[in-house]
Design a protein that fits this description.
Layout (H helix, E strand, L loop, with lengths): L13 H12 L3 H16 L18
Amino acid sequence: MIQKVVTKRSLRDSSLKNHDLAYWLSKTPEERVATVDFLRRQHYGSSARLQRSARVVQRSQG
């Protein structure tokens, strides 16, 4: 039989922050970006990338 294991920890525990930081620093930049993109897709519910927009402004001479 498989037993569920639950561990409760305080979010204010500074050792957890150091552990989390060490974990993410051990990952490659590509893995970190992929994780952020995964979380963004979960939050916004779309796999489409954010739309880019640009505006060209003509400056007057003189």
